[in-house]
Design brief:
With 394 residues, the chain is mainly α. It has one domain. It is 67% helix and 0% strand. The protein contains 16 helices and no strands.
Length: 394
């Protein structure tokens, strides 16, 4: 089968578009080149974290021993802006390239035939137009900034003195606290909201593509009628899952270190995040479930009837001895075809309706759990850790 080419599909991208992208393009900071991506991540750190450090140093709140949570000991805020923010930016090019590869896979694998190519290109063009709309990104910006209007400051901790306030015991918001509330946190929120928007765009793309007349084969060995490759698109999100997990873990660490919480009391947010993250990334693949369910049901009927007819002929020939006299079953293609049909029917029976595989689920679970490991080690007494390790080894 000759591979179908499409210049429209070659230009497929979820991230290279929209008002913010055009602004970065005009400023010379847009692009997937490693140097430009690193430059954007560094600029985000300089905007979100560095002013907080400088302002807290000026006001003596960076490491004041009289403050319960000075800036340099605030795990949550430092992890958020020094680890999570750069990852949210650095992950852009890798995830977009993976999505681009998956879009082209519809052509390489023959799922989109020459007859369906114009419709496939229309889907890509609609996705690009939706990506480039101004209103969605304006709404994202409003949603990112709006909480700062109604809240004096987004305190990550409550009930203890911290660098957000000007002076020990003061209720007045410090300069660093205002920057945190009006600049740093909105930037972080905007980065998170943009990834949700991009995930929506990818989901919309998959939904539209699934409605095309794709050449799906129920007996495909990926147990997803040929759509198993889509699982790789969700696996690419592991850096985002790790980044947000680090934010949750750092907040939990703050609660344990400064508010006297225990590890057991924080199990709900830690486990809850992992479950929600995995479900959120499996959800986009649910849009192809109706198509796969229809394919599976149809194949079960058709192959079921074919297997029944073949088994009846096999029974008549070899069990009831109605075949040519003297013929032996050893090496006869009848037995081989019986086995092949049985295997094909078994593949159809095992076919899933959501193209997600175990390696992808394991990768996402590890990405969510890994940031929690330092918290567990910090909050668990040394003797308990030693006993746990010895128990594992023994």
């Amino acid at each position: 089968m000759k591979e179908i080419k499409s210049s429209v599909a070659e230009g497929f991208s979820i991230t290279r578009g929209g008002p913010l992208h055009w602004l970065l393009l005009r400023l010379g900071h847009a692009g997937d080149e490693r140097q430009r991506v690193v430059r954007r991540a560094l600029a985000a750190v300089l905007i979100t974290w560095l002013p907080l450090l400088v302002l807290s140093l000026v006001q003596g709140e960076a490491y004041d021993p009289h403050i319960k949570i000075p800036f340099l000991r605030d795990l949550a805020v430092n992890v958020r802006f020094l680890i999570a923010v750069p990852i949210l930016i650095l992950a852009e090019s890798g995830i977009d390239k993976r999505w681009h590869t998956l879009a082209l896979e519809f052509l390489r694998s023959g799922l989109v035939t020459a007859k369906e190519l114009p419709s496939f290109e229309v889907v890509i063009e609609k996705t690009a137009r939706l990506r480039d709309r101004v209103l969605p990104e304006v709404l994202l910006m409003v949603a990112a900034v709006l909480p700062a209007i109604f809240l004096r400051t987004e305190l990550l901790m409550s009930g203890v003195s911290n660098w957000h306030t000007a002076g020990v015991g003061s209720g007045e918001v410090s300069s660093a606290g205002w920057w945190f509330n009006l600049v740093s946190t909105p930037v972080f929120r905007l980065l998170c909201f943009r990834w949700l928007w991009r995930l929506f765009l990818w989901t919309s793309f998959l939904r539209r593509v699934s409605r095309l007349n794709l050449y799906l084969v129920a007996t495909h060995t990926d147990r997803a009628a040929g759509l198993g490759f889509l699982s790789e698109g969700q696996k690419a999100f592991s850096p985002i899952v790790f980044a947000m997990g680090a934010v949750i873990a750092a907040q939990v660490a703050n609660t344990i270190a400064y508010q006297g919480a225990t590890l057991s009391s924080q199990k709900v947010p830690m486990i809850g995040y992992a479950v929600i993250a995995i479900l959120a990334l499996v959800a986009p693949l649910l849009v192809v479930a109706p198509v796969l369910l229809k394919i599976k049901r149809k194949a079960l009927r058709e192959y079921g009837a074919l297997v029944t007819i073949h088994d009846q002929l096999f029974d008549q020939k070899w069990i009831q001895k109605k075949g040519p006299p003297g013929e032996v079953i050893l090496g006869n293609p009848d037995a081989s075809s019986l086995c092949d049909l049985g295997n094909s029917f078994a593949v159809i029976r095992e076919m899933g309706i959501v193209p997600i595989d175990k390696p992808t689920l394991i990768t996402l679970a590890l990405a969510a759990a890994l940031p929690m490991v330092p918290v567990v080690l910090y909050a668990t007494p040394a003797d308990e850790l030693i006993r746990a390790v010895l128990k594992m080894l023994g």
